[in-house]
Amino acid sequence: MSAPAAEAMAPLVQPGSPISRFIWHCRNNPKRELWFAWWTTVVFYNFFTISFFVLSRTQPPANPALDAQGAAHWFEKNHYGILLGFAIMFLVTGMTAPQNALIAYSMRRMSISPAFGYSYLVLYSLSAVPGMLLLCIVLTVGAMRPERDPELQQWLFDLGFLSYVGTMGVFLIGSIVWMLAILIDKNRVFPKWFAYLNLCNALTEVVVSPAWIFHSGVFAWNGVIAWWIDMVVFGIYTGVFITLLRNMIRREDFGTGALPDLPPKRMLETSSLAKAAS
Amino acid sequence: MTTPAGADAPPNEFDEVKAKVQDHRFIPGQPDMWAFVLFETLVFTSYFVVYLLFRAQHHELYLQAQANLDLRIGIFNTIALLLSSWAVARCVQASRDGAYRSALTNAFMTIFFGFVFFVSKVLEWAKEIRMGNGFTTNEFFQHYFFLTSIHFLHLLIGFIVMGVVIYQLWSPKRRSQELVETGATYWHTVDFLWVLIFALLYVVR
Protein backbone atom coordinates (compact mmCIF):
# COMPACT_ATOMS: atom_id res chain seq x y z
CA MET A 1 0.00 0.00 0.00
CA SER A 2 1.43 3.43 -0.85
CA ALA A 3 1.80 6.28 1.62
CA PRO A 4 -0.89 8.56 0.15
CA ALA A 5 -3.40 5.71 0.29
CA ALA A 6 -2.61 5.25 3.95
CA GLU A 7 -3.10 8.95 4.58
CA ALA A 8 -6.50 8.80 2.95
CA MET A 9 -7.30 5.94 5.28
CA ALA A 10 -6.25 7.84 8.42
CA PRO A 11 -9.44 8.02 10.45
CA LEU A 12 -11.03 11.15 11.84
CA VAL A 13 -11.57 10.80 15.56
CA GLN A 14 -15.20 10.34 16.43
CA PRO A 15 -16.69 12.27 19.33
CA GLY A 16 -18.43 10.36 22.10
CA SER A 17 -17.68 8.45 25.29
CA PRO A 18 -14.33 6.69 25.70
CA ILE A 19 -16.04 3.32 25.23
CA SER A 20 -17.74 4.28 21.98
CA ARG A 21 -14.46 5.80 20.74
CA PHE A 22 -12.67 2.59 21.71
CA ILE A 23 -15.20 0.51 19.77
CA TRP A 24 -14.92 2.89 16.83
CA HIS A 25 -11.12 2.45 16.81
CA CYS A 26 -11.45 -1.33 17.05
CA ARG A 27 -13.59 -1.27 13.93
CA ASN A 28 -11.94 1.48 11.88
CA ASN A 29 -8.37 2.19 12.99
CA PRO A 30 -6.00 0.88 10.27
CA LYS A 31 -3.38 0.28 12.94
CA ARG A 32 -5.63 -1.73 15.24
CA GLU A 33 -3.64 -4.99 14.84
CA LEU A 34 -0.38 -3.19 15.60
CA TRP A 35 -1.86 -1.54 18.69
CA PHE A 36 -3.30 -4.86 19.77
CA ALA A 37 0.17 -6.44 19.58
CA TRP A 38 1.70 -3.49 21.44
CA TRP A 39 -0.83 -3.51 24.25
CA THR A 40 -0.46 -7.30 24.52
CA THR A 41 3.28 -6.75 25.06
CA VAL A 42 2.61 -4.24 27.83
CA VAL A 43 0.04 -6.48 29.51
CA PHE A 44 2.34 -9.52 29.21
CA TYR A 45 5.26 -7.77 30.94
CA ASN A 46 2.95 -6.69 33.75
CA PHE A 47 1.81 -10.27 34.30
CA PHE A 48 5.42 -11.45 34.01
CA THR A 49 6.57 -9.02 36.70
CA ILE A 50 3.74 -9.95 39.06
CA SER A 51 4.19 -13.71 38.54
CA PHE A 52 7.98 -13.82 38.80
CA PHE A 53 8.79 -11.04 41.26
CA VAL A 54 5.76 -10.96 43.52
CA LEU A 55 3.95 -14.32 43.51
CA SER A 56 6.47 -17.09 42.81
CA ARG A 57 9.48 -15.20 44.24
CA THR A 58 11.65 -16.68 41.52
CA GLN A 59 13.04 -13.22 40.80
CA PRO A 60 15.45 -12.32 42.25
CA PRO A 61 16.46 -16.02 42.09
CA ALA A 62 16.74 -18.17 45.23
CA ASN A 63 20.17 -18.93 46.67
CA PRO A 64 22.00 -21.63 44.61
CA ALA A 65 24.06 -22.57 47.69
CA LEU A 66 20.97 -24.01 49.44
CA ASP A 67 21.32 -27.69 50.41
CA ALA A 68 18.61 -30.31 49.74
CA GLN A 69 16.70 -29.42 52.91
CA GLY A 70 16.93 -25.73 52.07
CA ALA A 71 15.62 -26.30 48.55
CA ALA A 72 12.73 -28.45 49.86
CA HIS A 73 11.93 -25.73 52.42
CA TRP A 74 12.01 -23.10 49.66
CA PHE A 75 9.35 -25.03 47.73
CA GLU A 76 7.23 -25.38 50.88
CA LYS A 77 7.49 -21.69 51.69
CA ASN A 78 6.57 -20.56 48.18
CA HIS A 79 4.03 -23.32 47.50
CA TYR A 80 0.96 -21.19 46.74
CA GLY A 81 2.92 -18.36 45.14
CA ILE A 82 4.52 -20.78 42.65
CA LEU A 83 1.24 -22.50 41.80
CA LEU A 84 -0.69 -19.26 41.36
CA GLY A 85 2.13 -17.30 39.71
CA PHE A 86 2.88 -19.96 37.14
CA ALA A 87 -0.79 -20.75 36.53
CA ILE A 88 -0.97 -17.13 35.36
CA MET A 89 2.17 -17.60 33.26
CA PHE A 90 0.73 -20.67 31.54
CA LEU A 91 -2.33 -18.61 30.62
CA VAL A 92 -0.46 -15.58 29.29
CA THR A 93 2.71 -17.06 27.72
CA GLY A 94 0.90 -17.06 24.36
CA MET A 95 0.92 -13.27 24.58
CA THR A 96 4.57 -13.33 23.60
CA ALA A 97 3.46 -14.35 20.09
CA PRO A 98 1.93 -10.94 19.14
CA GLN A 99 4.94 -9.27 20.77
CA ASN A 100 7.41 -11.24 18.65
CA ALA A 101 5.20 -10.65 15.62
CA LEU A 102 5.30 -6.89 16.23
CA ILE A 103 9.10 -6.92 16.48
CA ALA A 104 9.31 -9.03 13.31
CA TYR A 105 6.90 -6.54 11.69
CA SER A 106 9.29 -3.71 12.62
CA MET A 107 11.99 -5.54 10.67
CA ARG A 108 9.68 -6.19 7.73
CA ARG A 109 9.09 -2.42 7.59
CA MET A 110 12.84 -1.90 7.13
CA SER A 111 14.65 -1.73 3.79
CA ILE A 112 16.26 -5.12 4.43
CA SER A 113 15.84 -8.79 3.62
CA PRO A 114 12.77 -10.47 5.18
CA ALA A 115 15.19 -13.13 6.49
CA PHE A 116 15.94 -10.86 9.48
CA GLY A 117 12.34 -10.72 10.67
CA TYR A 118 11.81 -14.45 10.12
CA SER A 119 15.03 -15.38 11.94
CA TYR A 120 14.01 -13.25 14.89
CA LEU A 121 10.54 -14.74 14.98
CA VAL A 122 11.82 -18.33 14.97
CA LEU A 123 14.61 -17.63 17.48
CA TYR A 124 12.36 -15.90 19.99
CA SER A 125 9.55 -18.41 19.63
CA LEU A 126 11.96 -21.23 20.47
CA SER A 127 13.78 -19.33 23.22
CA ALA A 128 10.63 -19.02 25.30
CA VAL A 129 10.85 -22.77 26.00
CA PRO A 130 14.25 -22.97 27.77
CA GLY A 131 14.19 -19.28 28.67
CA MET A 132 10.93 -19.26 30.62
CA LEU A 133 8.48 -22.16 30.23
CA LEU A 134 10.81 -24.87 31.51
CA LEU A 135 11.32 -22.97 34.78
CA CYS A 136 7.56 -22.58 35.21
CA ILE A 137 6.89 -26.28 34.60
CA VAL A 138 9.78 -27.63 36.70
CA LEU A 139 9.11 -25.40 39.71
CA THR A 140 5.39 -26.17 39.50
CA VAL A 141 6.30 -29.87 39.64
CA GLY A 142 8.41 -29.14 42.74
CA ALA A 143 5.59 -27.20 44.40
CA MET A 144 3.04 -29.91 43.59
CA ARG A 145 4.37 -32.40 46.20
CA PRO A 146 6.22 -30.48 48.92
CA GLU A 147 6.64 -33.76 50.89
CA ARG A 148 8.83 -35.27 48.12
CA ASP A 149 12.40 -36.44 48.92
CA PRO A 150 14.52 -33.26 49.47
CA GLU A 151 17.24 -34.62 47.14
CA LEU A 152 14.70 -34.69 44.31
CA GLN A 153 13.38 -31.27 45.26
CA GLN A 154 16.93 -29.89 45.02
CA TRP A 155 17.28 -31.49 41.59
CA LEU A 156 14.14 -29.68 40.42
CA PHE A 157 15.33 -26.48 42.08
CA ASP A 158 18.64 -26.59 40.16
CA LEU A 159 16.98 -27.56 36.88
CA GLY A 160 14.40 -24.79 37.20
CA PHE A 161 16.78 -21.94 37.98
CA LEU A 162 19.57 -23.03 35.66
CA SER A 163 17.17 -23.48 32.76
CA TYR A 164 15.91 -19.96 33.37
CA VAL A 165 19.04 -17.95 34.22
CA GLY A 166 21.68 -20.17 32.61
CA THR A 167 20.06 -20.19 29.19
CA MET A 168 19.88 -16.41 28.85
CA GLY A 169 22.18 -16.83 25.85
CA VAL A 170 19.33 -18.22 23.72
CA PHE A 171 18.03 -14.65 23.45
CA LEU A 172 21.42 -13.29 22.48
CA ILE A 173 21.35 -14.08 18.76
CA GLY A 174 17.87 -12.55 18.48
CA SER A 175 19.25 -9.27 19.86
CA ILE A 176 22.13 -9.39 17.39
CA VAL A 177 19.75 -10.05 14.48
CA TRP A 178 17.70 -7.01 15.51
CA MET A 179 20.89 -4.94 15.88
CA LEU A 180 22.13 -5.82 12.38
CA ALA A 181 18.70 -5.12 10.90
CA ILE A 182 18.61 -1.62 12.44
CA LEU A 183 22.19 -0.85 11.40
CA ILE A 184 21.65 -1.61 7.71
CA ASP A 185 18.06 -0.31 7.51
CA LYS A 186 17.56 2.84 5.44
CA ASN A 187 13.92 3.41 6.42
CA ARG A 188 14.84 4.94 9.81
CA VAL A 189 12.44 2.59 11.63
CA PHE A 190 14.59 2.71 14.78
CA PRO A 191 17.40 5.05 15.85
CA LYS A 192 20.90 3.59 15.45
CA TRP A 193 21.64 3.96 19.17
CA PHE A 194 19.00 1.33 19.81
CA ALA A 195 21.01 -1.07 17.61
CA TYR A 196 23.98 -0.49 19.91
CA LEU A 197 21.77 -0.97 22.96
CA ASN A 198 20.90 -4.39 21.50
CA LEU A 199 24.62 -5.15 21.48
CA CYS A 200 24.95 -4.06 25.13
CA ASN A 201 22.05 -6.32 26.03
CA ALA A 202 23.56 -9.25 24.12
CA LEU A 203 26.93 -8.73 25.82
CA THR A 204 25.44 -8.74 29.31
CA GLU A 205 23.63 -11.98 28.43
CA VAL A 206 27.01 -13.60 27.77
CA VAL A 207 27.99 -12.69 31.32
CA VAL A 208 25.31 -15.01 32.73
CA SER A 209 27.05 -18.17 31.50
CA PRO A 210 29.38 -18.61 34.57
CA ALA A 211 26.17 -19.41 36.51
CA TRP A 212 26.70 -23.00 35.30
CA ILE A 213 29.94 -23.22 37.33
CA PHE A 214 29.45 -21.29 40.56
CA HIS A 215 27.26 -22.11 43.56
CA SER A 216 27.87 -18.78 45.24
CA GLY A 217 29.45 -15.39 44.69
CA VAL A 218 28.99 -12.70 42.07
CA PHE A 219 28.85 -15.15 39.13
CA ALA A 220 26.31 -17.56 40.63
CA TRP A 221 22.76 -17.50 39.22
CA ASN A 222 21.72 -14.95 41.86
CA GLY A 223 25.05 -13.08 41.75
CA VAL A 224 25.53 -9.34 41.42
CA ILE A 225 27.25 -9.64 38.04
CA ALA A 226 25.50 -12.70 36.57
CA TRP A 227 21.98 -11.66 37.56
CA TRP A 228 21.52 -8.17 39.04
CA ILE A 229 23.50 -6.10 36.54
CA ASP A 230 22.15 -8.22 33.70
CA MET A 231 18.58 -7.70 34.91
CA VAL A 232 19.00 -3.92 35.15
CA VAL A 233 20.30 -3.79 31.57
CA PHE A 234 17.50 -6.08 30.38
CA GLY A 235 14.91 -3.95 32.21
CA ILE A 236 16.18 -0.76 30.56
CA TYR A 237 16.35 -2.53 27.18
CA THR A 238 12.76 -3.79 27.49
CA GLY A 239 11.45 -0.36 28.51
CA VAL A 240 13.27 1.22 25.59
CA PHE A 241 12.07 -1.22 22.95
CA ILE A 242 8.45 -1.02 24.13
CA THR A 243 8.63 2.79 23.84
CA LEU A 244 10.31 2.63 20.43
CA LEU A 245 7.74 0.13 19.12
CA ARG A 246 5.01 2.54 20.23
CA ASN A 247 6.70 5.35 18.32
CA MET A 248 7.07 3.09 15.30
CA ILE A 249 3.32 2.36 15.25
CA ARG A 250 2.54 6.05 15.62
CA ARG A 251 4.85 6.84 12.70
CA GLU A 252 3.70 3.95 10.50
CA ASP A 253 2.32 5.11 7.14
CA PHE A 254 1.99 1.63 5.58
CA GLY A 255 4.34 2.74 2.81
CA THR A 256 7.62 1.14 1.77
CA GLY A 257 9.96 4.14 2.02
CA ALA A 258 11.47 5.91 5.02
CA LEU A 259 9.20 6.03 8.04
CA PRO A 260 8.03 9.64 8.57
CA ASP A 261 8.75 11.50 11.80
CA LEU A 262 6.05 11.90 14.40
CA PRO A 263 3.42 14.50 13.46
CA PRO A 264 3.42 17.84 15.35
CA LYS A 265 2.30 17.66 18.96
CA ARG A 266 -1.01 19.50 18.67
CA MET A 267 -2.40 16.66 16.57
CA LEU A 268 -1.73 14.28 19.42
CA GLU A 269 -3.39 16.21 22.18
CA THR A 270 -7.04 15.47 21.50
CA SER A 271 -7.37 12.33 23.61
CA SER A 272 -5.49 9.21 24.50
CA LEU A 273 -7.44 7.28 21.90
CA ALA A 274 -6.72 9.91 19.30
CA LYS A 275 -3.06 9.21 19.97
CA ALA A 276 -3.68 5.67 18.97
CA ALA A 277 -5.11 6.80 15.66
CA SER A 278 -2.28 9.18 14.85
CA MET B 1 46.14 17.30 7.87
CA THR B 2 47.36 18.58 4.49
CA THR B 3 48.19 15.79 2.09
CA PRO B 4 46.56 17.00 -1.12
CA ALA B 5 48.80 14.69 -3.17
CA GLY B 6 47.07 11.63 -1.77
CA ALA B 7 43.64 13.16 -2.15
CA ASP B 8 41.36 11.33 -4.52
CA ALA B 9 38.02 12.81 -3.45
CA PRO B 10 36.75 16.15 -4.78
CA PRO B 11 38.35 18.98 -2.72
CA ASN B 12 35.02 20.57 -1.79
CA GLU B 13 34.06 17.38 0.06
CA PHE B 14 36.92 17.47 2.52
CA ASP B 15 36.68 21.22 2.90
CA GLU B 16 33.21 20.47 4.14
CA VAL B 17 34.51 17.80 6.54
CA LYS B 18 37.21 20.17 7.80
CA ALA B 19 34.69 22.93 8.38
CA LYS B 20 32.62 20.46 10.36
CA VAL B 21 35.59 19.31 12.44
CA GLN B 22 36.52 22.91 13.25
CA ASP B 23 33.03 23.48 14.60
CA HIS B 24 33.37 23.00 18.37
CA ARG B 25 30.01 21.19 18.55
CA PHE B 26 31.23 18.51 16.13
CA ILE B 27 30.79 14.90 17.26
CA PRO B 28 32.94 12.36 15.41
CA GLY B 29 30.95 9.54 13.81
CA GLN B 30 27.34 8.66 14.62
CA PRO B 31 26.24 10.32 17.88
CA ASP B 32 24.49 6.97 18.48
CA MET B 33 27.84 5.25 18.99
CA TRP B 34 28.55 7.66 21.84
CA ALA B 35 25.38 6.41 23.51
CA PHE B 36 26.91 2.92 23.28
CA VAL B 37 30.16 4.21 24.78
CA LEU B 38 28.25 5.78 27.66
CA PHE B 39 26.19 2.66 28.27
CA GLU B 40 29.13 0.26 28.10
CA THR B 41 31.08 2.54 30.41
CA LEU B 42 28.23 2.37 32.92
CA VAL B 43 28.03 -1.42 32.68
CA PHE B 44 31.80 -1.81 33.10
CA THR B 45 31.80 0.71 35.95
CA SER B 46 29.32 -1.54 37.74
CA TYR B 47 31.65 -4.55 37.19
CA PHE B 48 34.57 -2.50 38.54
CA VAL B 49 32.60 -1.37 41.58
CA VAL B 50 31.72 -5.00 42.37
CA TYR B 51 35.38 -6.01 41.96
CA LEU B 52 36.63 -3.19 44.19
CA LEU B 53 34.02 -3.90 46.89
CA PHE B 54 34.96 -7.59 47.05
CA ARG B 55 38.62 -6.67 46.91
CA ALA B 56 38.21 -4.41 49.92
CA GLN B 57 36.63 -7.31 51.84
CA HIS B 58 39.42 -9.81 51.15
CA HIS B 59 42.34 -7.52 50.57
CA GLU B 60 45.07 -10.02 51.51
CA LEU B 61 43.74 -12.75 49.22
CA TYR B 62 43.53 -10.37 46.27
CA LEU B 63 47.07 -9.09 46.87
CA GLN B 64 48.48 -12.62 47.02
CA ALA B 65 46.64 -13.74 43.90
CA GLN B 66 47.54 -10.56 42.08
CA ALA B 67 51.24 -11.33 42.65
CA ASN B 68 50.78 -14.21 40.15
CA LEU B 69 50.08 -11.75 37.34
CA ASP B 70 53.03 -10.53 35.32
CA LEU B 71 52.89 -6.74 35.22
CA ARG B 72 55.19 -6.75 32.18
CA ILE B 73 52.60 -8.65 30.12
CA GLY B 74 49.94 -6.19 31.25
CA ILE B 75 52.12 -3.27 30.16
CA PHE B 76 52.82 -4.98 26.83
CA ASN B 77 49.06 -5.51 26.31
CA THR B 78 48.41 -1.88 27.09
CA ILE B 79 51.10 -0.61 24.73
CA ALA B 80 49.76 -2.84 21.93
CA LEU B 81 46.24 -1.46 22.33
CA LEU B 82 47.43 2.14 22.70
CA LEU B 83 49.37 1.74 19.46
CA SER B 84 46.26 0.34 17.77
CA SER B 85 44.27 3.34 19.00
CA TRP B 86 46.97 5.65 17.69
CA ALA B 87 46.76 3.91 14.31
CA VAL B 88 42.97 4.23 14.16
CA ALA B 89 43.22 7.93 15.04
CA ARG B 90 45.68 8.37 12.15
CA CYS B 91 43.27 6.42 9.94
CA VAL B 92 40.48 8.91 10.72
CA GLN B 93 42.79 11.89 10.08
CA ALA B 94 43.96 10.47 6.77
CA SER B 95 40.41 9.68 5.71
CA ARG B 96 39.31 13.22 6.61
CA ASP B 97 42.10 14.55 4.38
CA GLY B 98 41.02 12.26 1.58
CA ALA B 99 44.26 10.25 1.81
CA TYR B 100 42.50 6.90 1.56
CA ARG B 101 45.58 4.80 0.86
CA SER B 102 47.18 6.02 4.07
CA ALA B 103 43.86 5.57 5.89
CA LEU B 104 43.73 1.93 4.76
CA THR B 105 47.32 1.29 5.86
CA ASN B 106 46.48 2.68 9.29
CA ALA B 107 43.30 0.62 9.52
CA PHE B 108 45.35 -2.52 8.82
CA MET B 109 47.88 -1.40 11.43
CA THR B 110 45.04 -1.05 13.92
CA ILE B 111 44.06 -4.65 13.27
CA PHE B 112 47.69 -5.75 13.46
CA PHE B 113 48.21 -4.20 16.92
CA GLY B 114 44.83 -5.56 17.98
CA PHE B 115 46.00 -8.99 16.89
CA VAL B 116 49.23 -8.58 18.87
CA PHE B 117 47.04 -7.93 21.91
CA PHE B 118 44.90 -10.94 21.01
CA VAL B 119 47.89 -13.30 20.87
CA SER B 120 49.54 -11.96 24.02
CA LYS B 121 46.24 -12.25 25.92
CA VAL B 122 45.72 -15.87 24.87
CA LEU B 123 49.32 -16.71 25.82
CA GLU B 124 48.88 -14.99 29.18
CA TRP B 125 45.71 -16.99 29.89
CA ALA B 126 47.51 -20.22 28.96
CA LYS B 127 50.40 -19.25 31.26
CA GLU B 128 48.07 -18.55 34.19
CA ILE B 129 46.18 -21.82 33.68
CA ARG B 130 49.47 -23.74 33.52
CA MET B 131 50.43 -22.07 36.83
CA GLY B 132 47.19 -23.46 38.29
CA ASN B 133 45.27 -20.18 38.26
CA GLY B 134 41.94 -21.01 36.60
CA PHE B 135 38.55 -19.30 36.53
CA THR B 136 37.46 -21.08 39.70
CA THR B 137 40.76 -20.91 41.63
CA ASN B 138 39.87 -17.92 43.80
CA GLU B 139 37.85 -14.72 43.79
CA PHE B 140 40.61 -12.62 42.26
CA PHE B 141 41.00 -14.98 39.30
CA GLN B 142 37.23 -15.12 38.85
CA HIS B 143 37.31 -11.36 38.31
CA TYR B 144 40.52 -11.55 36.29
CA PHE B 145 39.19 -14.11 33.83
CA PHE B 146 35.76 -12.48 33.71
CA LEU B 147 36.96 -8.93 33.02
CA THR B 148 39.64 -9.96 30.54
CA SER B 149 37.24 -12.31 28.69
CA ILE B 150 34.40 -9.83 28.38
CA HIS B 151 36.92 -7.26 27.17
CA PHE B 152 38.31 -9.85 24.75
CA LEU B 153 34.81 -10.28 23.33
CA HIS B 154 34.69 -6.51 22.73
CA LEU B 155 38.03 -6.83 20.94
CA LEU B 156 36.64 -9.58 18.66
CA ILE B 157 33.67 -7.35 17.80
CA GLY B 158 36.25 -4.60 17.20
CA PHE B 159 37.82 -6.71 14.44
CA ILE B 160 34.43 -6.90 12.71
CA VAL B 161 34.01 -3.13 13.15
CA MET B 162 37.46 -2.52 11.61
CA GLY B 163 36.40 -4.83 8.78
CA VAL B 164 33.49 -2.45 8.13
CA VAL B 165 35.87 0.54 8.25
CA ILE B 166 38.20 -1.13 5.70
CA TYR B 167 35.22 -2.03 3.51
CA GLN B 168 34.19 1.65 3.56
CA LEU B 169 37.68 2.90 2.73
CA TRP B 170 38.30 0.29 0.04
CA SER B 171 36.07 1.59 -2.74
CA PRO B 172 35.48 5.21 -3.86
CA LYS B 173 31.81 4.24 -4.17
CA ARG B 174 31.44 4.03 -0.39
CA ARG B 175 33.86 5.94 1.86
CA SER B 176 31.42 7.13 4.48
CA GLN B 177 33.49 9.33 6.77
CA GLU B 178 30.78 8.97 9.40
CA LEU B 179 31.12 5.17 9.48
CA VAL B 180 34.92 5.37 9.61
CA GLU B 181 34.69 7.66 12.63
CA THR B 182 31.98 5.52 14.24
CA GLY B 183 34.25 2.46 13.94
CA ALA B 184 37.18 4.41 15.35
CA THR B 185 35.04 5.49 18.32
CA TYR B 186 34.25 1.84 19.01
CA TRP B 187 37.92 0.88 18.78
CA HIS B 188 38.92 3.65 21.20
CA THR B 189 36.31 2.29 23.63
CA VAL B 190 37.97 -1.14 23.53
CA ASP B 191 41.29 0.54 24.33
CA PHE B 192 39.84 2.82 27.00
CA LEU B 193 38.14 -0.09 28.79
CA TRP B 194 41.39 -2.08 28.69
CA VAL B 195 43.34 0.76 30.31
CA LEU B 196 40.85 0.73 33.20
CA ILE B 197 40.97 -3.08 33.49
CA PHE B 198 44.77 -3.00 33.40
CA ALA B 199 44.88 -0.42 36.18
CA LEU B 200 42.41 -2.36 38.34
CA LEU B 201 43.77 -5.89 37.86
CA TYR B 202 47.51 -5.36 37.50
CA VAL B 203 48.39 -2.07 39.15
CA VAL B 204 46.04 -1.35 42.07
CA ARG B 205 47.56 -2.58 45.34
Overview features:
heterodimer; A: 278 residues; globular; disordered N terminus; B: 205 residues; Four Helix Bundle (Hemerythrin (Met), subunit A); elongated
Give an overview in words.
The complex is a heterodimer of chains A (about 280) and B (about 200). Chain A has twelve helices and no strands. Chain A is mainly α. In chain A, about 70% of the residues lie in helices and about 0% in strands. Chain A has one domain (about 15-275). Chain A is globular and about 60 Å long. The longest helix of chain A has 30 residues, at about 115-145. Chain B is an all-alpha fold. Chain B has one domain (about 30-205): Four Helix Bundle (Hemerythrin (Met), subunit A), CATH 1.20.120. Chain B is about 80% helix and about 0% strand. Chain B is built from seven helices and no strands. Chain B is elongated. The relative contact order of chain B is 0.17. Residues about 1-10 of chain B have low confidence and may be disordered. Classes of the chains: A mainly alpha (about 280), B mainly alpha (about 200). Chains A and B meet through α10 and α11 of A and α2 and α6 of B.
List the helices and strands and how they pair.
The complex is a heterodimer of chains A (278) and B (205).
Chain A lengths: L2 H7 L8 H11 L3 H24 L12 H10 L1 H14 L3 H13 L6 H30 L5 H17 L5 H13 L7 H15 L17 H28 L20 H6 L1
Helix pairs in contact in A: 3-5, 3-6, 3-11, 4-8, 5-7, 6-7, 7-8, 7-9, 9-10, 10-11
Chain B lengths: L10 H12 L8 H27 L1 H8 L4 H26 L3 H31 L8 H32 L6 H27 L2
Helix pairs in contact in B: 2-6, 2-7, 4-5, 4-7, 5-6, 6-7
The shape of chain A is globular
Count the beta strands of chain B. Answer: 0
* Record field, number of beta strands of chain A: 0
- Helical stretch count of chain A? 12
**Sheet having the most strands of chain B:** none
